[in-house]
Amino acid sequence: MTGNYMWDEVSNKEFLIGTNPDSRLSLWWNGSEPLWVTLQNVGKNVFMYFWPVKKIITLSSSHLYINSPVTFNINQSYILCVPTSRQADMAAVYYEKIDVEGHHFGPESPQVRTAVQKLDLIIQILNQKIKESNMVNKLNVLLFSDHGMAKIQWMEKVIELDKFIDMSDVLKIMDRGPVVSLWPKNTTYQKVTLQVHNMRVYARQEIPERFHYRKGNFVSPLTLVAEPGWFITKNKKTLPYWKNDSREPSAWQNGWHGYDNEFVDMRGFFLAVGPDFKQNVRGGSIRAVDVYNVMCWILGVDPLPNNGSWSRVEYLLNGFESPFQSDTLCNIVLLGVLLLVFY
Questions:
Q1: 150 vs 264: CA distance, rounded Å
Q2: If you placed Cys at 257, which of 86, 143, 147, 299 could pair as Cys (CB 3.0 to 4.6 Å)?
Q3: Could you tell me which InterPro entries the record lists for this protein (predicted)?
């Protein structure tokens, strides 16, 4: 799994962010084992809500509960009862609204602020249920995002590939946005690697190691990476407009993610509270791949080989020394600050 849009040269199959039947094939998912599968294999119960892989046979079992990815709202408080009623060893909820509003209206929009406020209210209810169930010292709660969001300006910062290369020299193009995968025809490999302002072109072996990307099964011979705020597409006709009140795909996108992860706006947040975590600690930056090791540790399972670094996260946990001085902020203030940083 290397992106929302992928192509397998061997089978000539496409993955189109789950919208086509071939996206359900196991070949896209077999490169790694999700944590919830690992937990089920050792006899633990897992509840997954609003996860976007409902019908992937290789990822599901009789112990796994996955809902359709619909809007999570405050009326669905039954979901919050699962962890406090001891029905599951782990329960996870994917909340998509902030991401959707960020794409449509931009990361600093009133719509994003409203979505964050709704999530904040849900977290307040969860905290109250934890207290009422006397599980404050028994339940760990983790809240984190998988990426940030950058403001984009369509029509002003668009890189139209067909203005720079002859598309007849291209075998395949997948995705659009900050990162685009391109398969040139063998005889025109060098011709396609034209330098374009505000975009970098990487041959597979040249992709920076810190991306943890170039060894993926579906990585193309050329990977195009836009500078922050710029958007790569074949031409403006292929831009991913969204349906607004007109019910036609005509509205501009105002936010996007997937840029170089050194770009500050791409950073997410990580918050955690519970018996396995130290209190009032505000640490340095961690990477998204580090969260997996934390979750394995508090769940009591051995992590599979991964790109995370234990040294970046162990100080957050009870029983480990911290290289950082404890912060005096209480959990509720820390939560508010980091949620504001996120949007």
A1: 9
A2: 147
A3: Alkaline_phosphatase_core_sf, Phosphodiest/P_Trfase
